[in-house]
């Protein structure tokens, strides 16, 4: 009888303890989740170098291969067990694997009782950024050195030919061209430094696409006439976008100047615009030399030139398309490229369209500034532009 009573009370106490236990995961389960979700590769080794615990990130960083820890990590773990001191090691892949992690730094720490933990951190992006910075400084130094050196040499030539008026004028013209190129390079560097890394523009104004096209055409008229190239456009669209008008005109002007510079004399350059999926697309198409497929991903890099000889002849800085890319990104848009060697190229600037907060009041506002018949034709014209953009080889057909 006494044994039954004792058993009853023991069972009741066990039930109470289970009822008191709070619901949810245990501390050990939370620790396991923490290890598995960590952005760093984590491996726990015993005194024999065998894995006790690891997370998926360790596989991605190459810390674990074929269910075994990297031999470098195992060797370092043996040393840490002997010295009981943390150790840093290089766990970077021994073979290049493209965009895979290429700079991995590991830290091995003792856990006691012969156990060690290896934590690997991916520093690849920092290494890439540092390489880009070094390239940028080297490129800027080279690009600035070229016109400065040319101006110095031409100035010496002017001094030597001071008595020859014709030579002075000839060298003076060259000095003017080099100084103009230098000023343009500095201006574009300043513009790029302001754009790069900036977030989406906080103060956006409603901008007329047609006004941006007209102003960009005005800036490019002189160079187009000098190159014997006629720039054609489609009909006014009436489309609106949100952004900075000055930056948008600069971006479109750069695309037009690029098309003119890389097109043979007498070839056409065209501009088309349309609305697609809430984005306004402004496409610049040329019938120039085209861009090789393996170079199309690099043309938006700073100072990269697909045809270096032609760039030197036209005085290009190599920053125009980089500025276009950053202007598009700062407006929440993008820039696309279609190109084929010997056929030409199409650069498409995509910017989010302006959406009126009060569409019901828009017709009444428009009626004050435009006659009623014209307002009735506007939707039809806009729709026709969309269809034309999809079918025309100067626009969507090439994209």
TrEMBL record:
Residues 374-383 have a biased composition (Basic and acidic residues). Its EC number is 2.7.13.3. It catalyses: ATP + protein L-histidine = ADP + protein N-phospho-L-histidine. It is found in: Cell membrane. Residues 139-355 form the Histidine kinase domain. InterPro entries: BphY/WalK/GraS-like, HATPase_C_sf, HATPase_dom, His_kinase_dom, HisK_dim/P_dom, HisK_dim/P_sf, Sig_transdc_His_kin-like_C. Pfam families: HATPase_c (PF02518), HisKA (PF00512). It is an enzyme of class 2 (transferase). PANTHER family: PHOSPHATE REGULON SENSOR PROTEIN PHOR. This is Sensor-like histidine kinase SenX3.
């Amino acid at each position: 009888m006494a044994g039954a009573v004792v058993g009853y009370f023991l069972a009741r106490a066990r039930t109470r303890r289970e009822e008191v236990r709070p619901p949810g995961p245990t501390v050990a389960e939370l620790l396991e989740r923490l290890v598995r979700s960590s952005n760093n590769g984590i491996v726990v080794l015993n005194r024999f170098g065998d894995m006790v615990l690891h997370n998926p990130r360790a596989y991605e960083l190459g810390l674990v291969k074929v269910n075994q820890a990297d031999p470098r990590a195992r060797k370092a773990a043996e040393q840490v067990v002997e010295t009981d001191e943390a150790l840093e090691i290089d766990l970077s892949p021994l073979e290049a694997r493209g965009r895979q992690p290429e700079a991995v730094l590991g830290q091995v720490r003792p856990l006691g009782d012969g156990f060690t933990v290896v934590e690997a951190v991916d520093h690849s992006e920092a290494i890439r950024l540092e390489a880009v910075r070094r390239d940028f400084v080297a490129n800027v130094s080279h690009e600035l050195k070229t016109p400065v050196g040319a101006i110095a040499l031409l100035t010496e030539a002017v001094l030597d030919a001071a008595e020859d008026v014709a030579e002075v004028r000839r060298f003076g013209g060259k000095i003017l061209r080099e100084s103009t190129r230098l000023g343009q390079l500095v201006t574009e560097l300043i513009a790029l430094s302001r754009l790069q890394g900036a977030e989406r523009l906080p103060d956006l104004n409603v901008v007329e696409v047609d006004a941006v096209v007209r102003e960009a055409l005005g800036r490019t008229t002189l160079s187009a006439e000098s190159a014997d190239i006629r720039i054609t456009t489609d009909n006014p669209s009436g489309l609106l976008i949100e952004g900075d008008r000055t930056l948008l005109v600069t971006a479109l002007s750069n695309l037009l100047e690029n098309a003119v510079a890389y097109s043979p004399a007498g070839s056409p350059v065209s501009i088309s615009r349309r609305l697609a999926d809430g984005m306004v697309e402004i496409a610049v198409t040329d019938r120039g030399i085209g861009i090789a497929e393996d170079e199309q991903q690099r043309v938006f890099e700073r100072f990269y030139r697909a045809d270096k000889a032609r760039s030197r002849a036209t005085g290009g800085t190599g920053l125009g398309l980089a500025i276009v890319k950053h202007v598009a990104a700062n407006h929440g848009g993008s820039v696309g490229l279609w190109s084929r060697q010997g056929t030409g190229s199409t650069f498409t600037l995509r910017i989010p369209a302006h959406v009126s907060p009060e569409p019901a009041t828009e017709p009444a506002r428009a009626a004050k500034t435009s006659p009623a018949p014209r307002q009735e034709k506007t939707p039809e014209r806009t729709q026709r532009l969309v269809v034309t953009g999809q079918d025309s080889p100067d626009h969507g057909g090439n994209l």
